Amino acid sequence: MIGFNLLVAICLGYVVLLFLVAFWGDNQAQAGRGEWLRSPLVYTLSLSIYCTAWTFYGAVGYAARTGLEFVTIYLGPTLVLVGWWWILRKLVRIGRTQRITSIADLISSRYGKSNLLGVIVTLLAVVGTTPYIALQLQSVVLSFSVFSQAAGGENPQSTAFWVAVGLAAFTVLFGTRNLDANERHHGVVTAIALEAVVKLVALLAVGIFVVWGIGGGPRDIAATIEASKIAAWDMNGSRWVTMIFLSAAAFMTLPRMFQVLVVENVSERQLATASWAFPLYMFAMSLFVVPIAVVGLDVLPAGANPDLFVLTVPLHFEKSTLATLTFLGGFSSATSMVIVAAIALSTMMSNHVVMPLWLSLRRGGAAMSGDVRQVVLVSRRLSIAGVLGLGWLYYQVSGGGEALAAIGLIAFVGVAQVLPVMIGGLFWRGATRIGAAAGLSVGFAIWIYALFLPSFGDSGIMSASFLENGPWGLGWLRPQAFFGITGLDPLVHATFWSMVLNTGVFVIGSILSFPRPLERLQGAQFVNVFEHSSTAQSWARGAAEAEDLLVMAQRIMGASEAQALFQAEAMRQGKQGYLPDTTPDFLRALERELSGSVGAATAHAMVSQTVGGASVSVEDLMAVADETAQILEYSNQLEAKSEELTRTARQLQQANEKLTALSIQKDAFLGQISHELRTPMTSIRAFSEILREGGMSPSETQKYSGIIQDEAIRLTRLLDDLLDLSVLEAGQVTLNREEVDLADVIERAVAAGSGRDGGLEIQRNAAREHARVVTDPDRLAQVFINLIANARKYCDAKAPRLTISVETRPDRVQVDFMDNGAGIPPESQTMIFEKFSRLTDHRKAGGAGLGLAICREIMSKLGGAVEYLPGQGGAAFRVTLPRERGAPPR
Amino acid sequence: MSRVPTTFLARETYRRRRIIDAIRVVPIVALLLFMLPMLGAAQMARSTALAGIYLFAVWLAAILATALINRALAGSPGGVGADPLEPGSTAPDETDP
User: Fold this and answer.
1) 3-class DSSP state for residue A285?
2) Prediction pTM value
3) Do B94 and A68 make contact, defined as CB atoms within 8 angstroms?
4) Which of B35, B66, B68, B73 to mutate to test the interface with A (most CBs of A within 10 A)?
5) Which of A266, A283, A290 sits opposite B94 (nearest CB)?
6) What's the mean per-residue pLDDT of chain A?
7) What's the number of domains chain B is made of?
8) Using CB atoms, which residue from A83, A93, A235 is nearest to B27?
9) Contacting residues for B56 by C-beta, under 8 A, at least 6 apart
10) What's the confidence (pLDDT) of residue A394?
11) What is residue A633's predicted lDDT score, i.e. its pLDDT?
């Protein structure tokens, strides 16, 4: 017999292995070698979280009590997967096109991004999943106690507690790495795939041992089955059908199953393979269940717990290695379920409960200060801890008795309440938010009343007489015999009435109510996902400032991702820079991108706070009403053409604006240059005339010739600048390229630019500045000095501060210069790089307005760019340098 | 299939539609067969071992049928999930960057 301490050591070793595997999986994905993580095989294995500890241990116990009925738990999912063309194909496609983050998000998004529905489904999921998590903790504790019976002295409560803490740590570490819930959790998926293999191998090993090791092969086992008490099982037709239905429903609606089945799905290829491979997995998992059960009944004493036969049969025959493997299999089943359930629930809680609350508390809008990313991540982490804490608490309170074992099926009935609303939403355009909310509430209430509360037994909330006579003696309201129909199995009774009334109220409510425009739009998008694969245009051309949107998007998606998105969109529209026009198309794309992080309802609320109210245009509604594919096709073509025209027109308009501005600038240039030359010339002439007249004291002579010299220097500097610029523009400049450390160049520029009046504080992060670039260091330093000098001159903050930050990308290096002043107004942002453009015309600036023009020329000669970066709270310039090692472009 | 020129139009599309019909039928047949044991439950003295073998055989047959039909489906240029009747169903897979 294996010692208890050794078992704990093996278990901890296994946990360490899981952590390492998860780390490895994350690193593989980060290094871009994660292609296999998206393979259909890994997807299939991740579905195995359907087989929890309840099925790993419980299936044998189930078979020992009610014979073959246990297979119904697997037959339902088999039917759903084998029939993937009916429902799953559509579900998965919608999940991908709408960037659905959870089952609550799916329901909320389908019914007009309603947060009410999101909250109801989240509540249902939490109530249904908490006991389920308690069940997993119980199974780990029970399996430990089997081993510790010999050793003794271990405390089951503390085991459960530490298992819960460990699982919370794992889930927080690997489940909340990235904010985008739509992204795959590579580390978690890798660990779960490993656990899937472990539990399958463990169960198969016990089965093979039982059939060929103890029994004399399949024929003998068949005889043992006929002789055992299992042969006397009675097939209950209503339970048989109900269980197939329930397991099929739960396979799609359990939050954790929805997470791996829909949210983490990336292609239909995965689904097509899983449609036969996962039924095969379940087939293998259940093949040896009955043999293990009959052998257990045969060899073990009469009082033995059949739920633990998988462990106790190998132990009975002194096969401690096999028993340890089984233990790890059960442990894997429990932990993988809890991890994914916690991820799924925490996403739902943070997106549908915490974020809406947070948004409504900050009336100022999403664009206000505060890092939303941090809020979301913290709320997810707290939710994970909360979910596991609730599970542990439930286990503590319920005492981990027999009642808990029945909770698996009870949870199935609970989550199945989402099914009518989900299926209705996928296939029926007429399903409305009001109908869905009413149906869900009725189903939820009946489930609580007829199944969940009675499951605590008569010692619990409902007394025996209450169950017997109904509330206030109303017989037709008896929790387990509605309308006086007695004799039904409680599970069948609750399933039947909750589903019938839920569906009925949902359908009637939908027929009687009238949907809002956004609901109709979303309904058409969902039901006709295969007809037109674009998403709803729910934004009219708003008065939204692109810059406000950028500020908000940066807070949710992170600065670089948001900037990349905005830049790509601007480029698509034929514009330069970071600020695209806020077209309805762009707003829709942005909202979809955000909903991948915070859910559809929250993303919609955030965008509408910035844009100032959503509106559905007449065209949108006409597109919904339009059923004919030809008309749609035709209008799509027209739309594509008009889009192209719009783009060309926009480019032309931009070019025209620029030409006009350039022409004005040219006149201004001549005027400016004569002015700039004339002022010093005038004073030189005046003072030289005075000097020629003579008759002055030496000090006066000194003073006047000093003035003449200063003015001459200014003149020379101006001419130098002009010359520099014309040489650069004509491309005659020679660059002395060498490989340098960027930090040295910045250091040089800061040193050269400081020390004159010291009013400007410069913030740097020296550690991140080290990057090897091939460039002309003198010219680059000239650009940096110019940007620093600009900040010194124009930053109007009380305590001016310049932040220099360097970011190294695979193909380029970005150096951002951001000050805390008022920034540059949007209408001037395109002009500042032109010659003689000075925003403030006071002479304290002391230059001719050529600095930024020179910077731009230098950077384009160096193969990089300098641009204005909007939305950073002050004036910000981004210098981009290429990093390629090969020959630089001349 | 046949190399003889025929007047049959859009043979490929027709074939694919029928394969899709086949994949839709599999779960219905499987459900019927799974519920079959209920018919004689009360009267017949059944053998549990035989009932088990029957269920597992149906199960395996459904799995094999699905695997084979999916192989036939995977050959389509529009991807495994494409349906000729649905203009939007050939949307690209792997939407995740």
Assistant:
1) helix
2) 0.74
3) no
4) B66
5) A266
6) 82
7) 1
8) A83
9) A283, A287
10) 85
11) 64
